[in-house]
Each structure stands twice: as C-alpha cells, then as structure tokens.
Design brief:
Layout: H1 6-17, E1 21-25, E2 30-35, E3 38-43, H2 52-58, H3 61-70, E4 79-82, H4 88-98, E5 101-105, E6 115-117, H5 120-129, E7 135-140, E8 146-153, E9 156-164, E10 167-169, H6 176-182, E11 202-204, E12 216-219, H7 223-240, E13 244-252, E14 255-262, H8 268-273, H9 275-292
Antiparallel strand pairs: 1-2, 2-3, 4-7, 5-6, 5-7, 8-9, 8-13, 9-12, 10-11, 13-14
Helix pairs in contact: 1-9
C-alpha cells in the first residue's frame, strides 16, 4: 500500500493492530477512524482530543502570546494585525523600534512565509507575499541558537527534542555554496554563498529552527534541561487547556521562553530520521488514538 505521508502510514498501522476501521478522504489528508460504530476524525495533524475553539486559539499566535503573558509565562511577543491594516509606515516604525522584526501569518505553520526583516526593501517584499493572508503577526527578532520542541498529551510531556539548524564547518578552501550543495540545503538569502569560511569555522545556514528547512531533531537526554522545559510547557498547556499539542521553547542565555504552541502535532520529519524516531512517533500517536477510544479500548 502506498502512503501519502508518514502519519498516514503510522495511523494505518495503529488502526490495523487495534481493529479500528480507517477511511481516508481528500487525498489521504483526512481520516475517519471507526470502532464499535463510534467514529472520530483526524484532519492533517489535528487529533480529536481538543474542541474547535481550543484548536482555533492555539492556531492564533497573537492570542496565545497574550494569554501566556497575562499569566506571567515567559514567551515571545506576537503582535496581531489584520493584513489590510498593516503597511510600510507601521512596519518601518516597528523596525525602528526593534531593529529587526519577524513577519509571518498569524495562523501559519512549518516556517512557511516567515520573514526576517532588517530593511525597508525586505519589509516591502514580505508585505507583498503576506497579502494572501487575512491576518499576520509581528515579533521583535530575538537571536538564539537552541530551540526545543516538546510533545504533550494530557499535560504530560511525551518527547523533547532540540532542533539543530543546518550548518557547515569551513575548511579554508571551499565556499559556503559548495558545502550547502553537499548537504542539499538552501541557505538564507542573506548569506554570501561565495564566502570561503576559515578552517574549523561553523556557519549556520538558516535562521529558522524548522525541520522542514533542514534542521535536525536531536532527542534531549539532559535531565536538567528536560525538567525546565517540562515545567514551562506543562504550565502553558494547562493555561490554554489543550490536551494534545507541541510547544516550541527557545533557550536565550539561561532563560527559556515559549515561542509558540501548535495544535497540530506534526512528526513527519522527526519520524523519518531513524527507526527509533519512527517508533517514538508511532507510540505517541497510538496513545492519542487510543485515548480517543478510551471507553471502548482497554490496554
């Protein structure tokens, strides 16, 4: 059987093992799971463990930012704008205030159409590309190296991994472009591809901490870091009252701040890295599915 995605393959294996009927719709993007005449739906990476208002709220980056800030949770600021009301003048004022800003869809995901703005030209380009969205958000840019993702189910952390951005180590001979091609990564536009890094110098190729943009997931086994991330993410999930989610956390010097909460639990790239990662993702999705059918499936 050919599968559209890792999640399609994983949930099919789970359903087959537990005698759950699975039907797919919309080019294998939506699924109906049925057992004992009871049905639940999975849409994309959204599972049937949270109600619609909760899912809509966590998809609203500015709303989550406001809620967490009101509860004194350290998090990145996301300032909401209707796209039609955001213009060059507003952007330039924010750029003057913060020096660097990030523009992105207020309900976007996967690092798509996320722009780091340092100049008026970059601002104009971003505004034009974001015109297809109804609303956007603006964040002051914060430089940091380490970002982590925690997967939570019923206020319990199931997995924490670090997103290691793609990088190269210079040899004093070859260009950044040479190394980037070797690892099949497209560097940020701001990087001069013809630069020859000094021998031993580390060059980060992307400012975004997204697995879809070449970052690598590294499972965290440092107990001190895990406890810190568990504490802040569990508190955030309880405040939002969400049952199944992923939460991104940035480490800035010795401080940990929530970047955003994702209602869709995407583990495509993570599960593709190794067999162990695949089994971890499958176990988490299995728990989510069985929890949906908790009244009729006993393990």
């Amino acid at each position: 059987m050919k599968f559209r995605s890792q999640i399609h393959k994983i949930i099919t294996e789970i359903c087959n093992k537990h005698n759950i009927k699975i039907e797919s719709f919309s080019d294998d993007w939506n699924f109906r799971l049925t057992k004992n005449n009871i049905s639940y739906y999975i849409s994309g990476y959204q599972f049937p463990l949270d109600n619609a208002p909760i899912r809509l709220i966590v998809d609203d980056k500015a709303a989550v930012s406001s809620i967490l800030k009101e509860k004194k949770i350290k998090c990145f600021e996301h300032i909401f704008f209707m796209t039609k009301n955001f213009n060059i003048d507003i952007g330039e004022k924010m750029l003057k205030k913060y020096k660097k800003i990030v523009l992105k869809p207020n309900n976007g995901t996967g690092g798509r159409n996320v722009f780091l703005i340092t100049t008026k030209n970059e601002l104009e380009n971003a505004i034009n590309k974001l015109a297809i969205y109804n609303c956007i958000c603006v964040s002051p840019y914060v430089e940091y190296e380490n970002e982590f993702r925690a997967i939570l189910l019923k206020n319990k952390v199931q997995l924490i991994y670090k997103k290691e951005r793609p990088f190269i180590i210079g040899d004093g001979i070859n260009t950044i472009n040479y190394f980037a091609n070797k690892i099949n990564i497209i560097p940020d536009e701001a990087i001069d591809l013809n630069t020859i890094p000094a021998k031993g110098k580390k060059i980060l190729l992307n400012w975004k901490h997204n697995l879809q943009h070449g970052a690598k997931a590294i499972i965290v086994d440092d107990e001190k870091i895990k406890k810190i991330i568990e504490k802040i993410t569990i508190l955030a999930s309880k405040i939002i009252n969400i049952n199944f989610c992923s939460i991104d956390v940035a480490k800035i010097k010795n401080n940990y701040m929530i970047v955003e909460i994702n209602g869709g639990v995407m583990m495509e790239k993570f599960s593709s890295q190794t067999t162990n990662n695949y089994n971890i993702a499958k176990n988490i999705y299995k728990k989510a599915i069985l929890l949906s059918f908790a009244n009729i499936i006993k393990e």
